[in-house]
Design a protein that fits this description.
The complex is a heterodimer of chains A (100) and B (491). Chain A has three helices and three strands; from the N terminus they run ααβαββ. With 100 residues, chain A is mainly alpha-helical. Chain B is α+β, with helices and mostly antiparallel strands and 491 residues long. The chains are: A mainly alpha (100), B alpha+beta (491). The interface between A and B is large, with 41 and 61 residues. Strand 1 of chain A pairs parallel with strand 2 of chain B.
Chain lengths: 100, 491
């Protein structure tokens, strides 16, 4: 059985994703997310006794490119779809402190 | 400051982030160039446009494997990529491509020098490849500016075991790692450009009355100089001991777990950032866009060949083969190029002792002035070989050789031509030397009288006459010969 998604888990996921959730969403999401996870339980029914565990979905290996520069975008092209810019920077809400 | 009843042991593990000196980024072929104008080295991949696919930089994988092999790591047959999920403006994808459970390198070690002249092995837990984040600009009023030039630059994260027990060991390990990556030529390892960043994990094991206490582990984030690394570790040693003294039972690893702190360079103190309550939950998952990397023996062998001789092996060889002291051998193996020049000169027939003296004499002095390696002052194998041979043949004396050395660095000229042009070639013509000696005696009767009287001032006057002859020869007369002739004349 998969984990039951309760309000605390939803709040935690919301915080990790930097999403503010409304009271309404806090009421509907736990049930919806629990349903989604239950679909995956369906997979547990499959007999995988003689199947080698898969580490990667793609059957390719060693796709590597030589270290040769290509032409980059101009700042104008790079910033074209940005909601806001400041000079040649992407302009975002003020952040403080370290990232990772 | 430490209570005599307490035995306090500092325990430090170090994470080092090394930016690799590839021409292009890890997953796209935008330039990896520090200091370019904002958002000029960006494309659809590194700005994380939907539908783009990352493609690994082959050279970055080679460079990382070289570091792993040089650290005597296991470089496994199979390695893969994972997503480390977190949201921050300098990480436009919302995840960092990194390696979680199957890193490129694992279980190696690095030997570091200790103050007492012995060595200590620091174990390396793992080294994995990942991408750097962009840079946030905080100087814009009321907003943050994001520059994605650095986003996607290849970063090798090298994680040590908690094997360091003093500030000196931490510094020694960090500097040895800098030397190694420069030696392998995989990173410029320039601190000012952020090529190396440190994150030490620090705690104390304190034994009092037979009981051992462990203080909570502190990880200090993002230190970008040796000075702040040393400062942060020294400060944490003091702070954790003082905190523990206030509450030996409560201030414990078991109760408080791990904490992140930052370092305030100006004040020299660490500052609380977050504790285990709001630790990040990175939700690692295998990246479906990047295929696995399968490594075979042929690949590992090719890189071993490219690595060649490692610094510690070369240092040992210099002691053995050239009969150098540990100190001299160590000074010549700080970088690969300096030793390469020395070895080629010896191979071309120059005497190793004379080459070493030239490199560690004027060579080291000029390097010191310029704050660069001896090789980087611009000396060539040909110059070193010729000058060492001239010394061996008595074509120049030591003083003249130093003058030639300085000039050949300044002008990139050939030593013999410089010595000829500047009249620095040793005069082997005894008649000419005789003439200078006679002139000096004739012009300085007072000094001659003093010497003949044999009083206290005798040696000083003899030295004066020596100086006169050397000056007349512009330093080109062999001092031993001059001395011999003067003594004969004045006895």
């Amino acid at each position: 059985m998969s984990q039951k998604i309760d309000a605390d888990v939803v709040r935690h996921i919301g915080k990790l994703s930097r999403i503010e959730l409304t009271d309404e969403e806090m009421r509907t999401f736990p049930g919806q997310l629990t349903d989604v996870l239950q679909y995956f339980d369906k997979l547990q029914e499959l007999d995988t006794e003689n199947v080698t565990p898969m580490v990667h979905a793609v059957e390719l290996k060693n796709i590597l490119a030589a270290d040769i520069p290509h032409e980059s975008l101009t700042p104008d092209e790079a910033l074209k779809n940005a909601p806001d810019r400041e000079g040649d920077f992407f302009r975002v809400t003020k952040v403080l402190g370290a990232g990772s | 400051m430490i209570d005599t009843n307490d035995k306090v042991q500092l325990i430090v593990g170090l994470e080092i982030h090394v930016e690799l000196a590839t021409k292009t980024k890890m997953f796209c072929r935008c330039r990896n160039n520090f200091g370019d104008p904002p958002n000029t080295n960006v494309c659809a991949v590194c700005t994380s446009m939907p539908g783009t696919l990352p493609v690994m930089n082959a050279l970055a994988v080679d460079y990382s494997m070289k570091v792993g092999l040089a650290l005597d790591c296991n470089v496994p047959d199979y390695t893969k990529w994972d997503r480390k999920n977190y949201y921050y403006p300098d990480l436009p994808k919302g995840y960092q491509l990194s390696q979680y459970d199957l890193p490129l390198c694992e279980h190696g070690c690095l030997e570091i020098p200790l103050a007492d002249g012995t060595q200590k092995k620091i174990r390396v837990l793992r080294a994995h490849l990942e991408e750097d984040a962009g840079k946030n600009n905080h100087e814009i009023p009321g907003a943050t500016g994001v520059d994605l030039n650095r986003a996607g630059v290849p970063l090798l994260e090298i994680v040590s075991e908690p094997d360091m027990n003093s500030v000196e060991e931490v510094a020694g390990y960090a500097r040895s790692m800098q030397r190694l990556v420069r030696w392998l030529d995989v990173s410029k390892a320039n601190m000012q450009m952020g090529h190396m960043r440190f994150e030490p994990n620090i705690n104390l094991h304190i034994t009092r009355d037979g009981t051992t206490y462990k203080t909570p582990i502190v990880e200090v984030k993002n230190l970008n100089s040796f000075r702040s690394l040393e400062g942060a570790v020294a400060y944490e040693f003091k702070r954790q001991y003082e905190e523990w003294q206030k509450d030996p039972e409560g201030f414990s690893l078991k109760k408080l777990g791990k904490q992140n702190r930052g370092f305030d360079d100006a004040k020299g103190v660490t500052v609380f950032q977050r504790d285990k309550e709001d630790a990040h939950d990175y939700r690692y998952l295998p990246d479906p866009d990047l295929p696995a990397v399968i490594i075979d023996d042929a690949w590992r062998e090719r890189l071993r060949d490219e690595i060649g001789e490692l610094p510690l092996a070369r240092r040992a060889r210099y002691i053995e083969e050239y009969g150098l002291s540990f100190k001299d051998a160590d000074a010549l193996t700080q970088d690969a190029a300096t030793g390469d020049i020395l070895d080629s000169a010896v191979k071309a027939g120059a005497d190793s002792k004379r080459c070493v003296n030239l490199l560690l004499g004027r060579g080291a002095a000029i390097a010191n002035e310029r704050e660069c390696s001896i090789a980087d002052i611009g000396i060539t194998t040909e110059q070193l070989t010729e000058l060492a041979k001239m010394l061996a043949d008595g074509d120049v004396n030591a003083t003249a050789a130093n003058k030639v050395f300085d000039k050949m660095i300044e002008t990139s000229g050939a030593p013999r031509e410089i010595a000829e042009a500047d009249g620095l070639l040793a005069v082997k013509d005894t008649g000419q030397i005789q003439q200078w000696v006679d002139d000096a005696i004739a012009k300085n009767p007072q000094a001659v009288d003093i010497i003949k009287e044999g009083g206290k001032k005798k040696e000083k006057s003899f030295g004066f006459l020596m100086g006169q002859v050397m000056q007349a020869s512009r330093g080109a007369a062999p001092p031993a010969e001059v001395q011999k002739l003067l003594r004969e004349k004045l006895s």
